[in-house]
Amino acid sequence: MAAGLLAALLAAGCDGPAAKAPTEAFAAPRDAAPEHVFRGTLAGQPVHLVAHDCEVFRIGAVHGTQVDWERVLAPEPYPFFTSCARQSLVANADGSVTATLGRMAFGAGGCCATGGTWRSRDGTTWTPTR
Predict the structure, then answer these.
(1) Are 49 and 72 in contact, with CB atoms under 8 Å apart?
(2) In this predicted model, what pLDDT tens digit does every residue of 93-105 receive, in sequence order?
(3) CA-CA distance, 1 to 103, in Å (whole number)?
(4) What are phi and psi of 81, to 5 degrees?
(5) Quick one: CA dihedral 26, 27, 28, 29, positive or negative?
(6) Residues 44-68 pLDDT 10s
(7) What are phi and psi of 30, to 5 degrees?
(8) pTM check: above 0.85
(9) Which of 104, 113, 121, 118 is closest to 56 using CA atoms?
């Protein structure tokens, strides 16, 4: 009977449950440049942040190739098409992190149509620095 079941599975091309493809939330921190990632302690809690496409996400639980993430910071919307021109996360000596984000409008020179610099002490609440 086991041989028959095995033959049926092989004939059907089944190798077992299909693995889920990695999500964007999984790929973003994995592929991010070092200056786009903060991993450390803020307000006494471990925090993992990633700047991705000019937004900052807080990384939560990881389940294989599936990751829970939450957008915690994004620049104001712009009415036309934009691209991410600059982004970074920097740990500060005072126990905070600074995020710099800048989106450039397509066809425009220079930077930035939207963006700015923000600081957070907990990775969730952000205050503009300028």
Answers:
(1) yes
(2) 999 999 999 999 8
(3) 62
(4) -65, 140
(5) positive
(6) 999 999 999 999 999 988 777 778 8
(7) -65, -40
(8) no
(9) 118
Which of 64, 75, 77 lies closest to 30 in space, CA to CA?
64
How far is Cα 59 from Cα 27, in angstroms, rounded to an integer?
12
> Could you count the other beta carbons within 10 Å of the beta carbon of residue 69?
21
In this structure, of 12-16, 31-35, 67-71, 86-90, the range with the lowest mean pLDDT score is 12-16
- Residue 55 tokens read as 């937004």
**Exposure class string for 90-124: b at 16+ Cβ within 10 A, else e:** eeeeeebbbbbbbbbbeeeeeebbbbbebbbebbb
User: Looking up tokens 């425009």, which residue turns up?
Assistant: 108
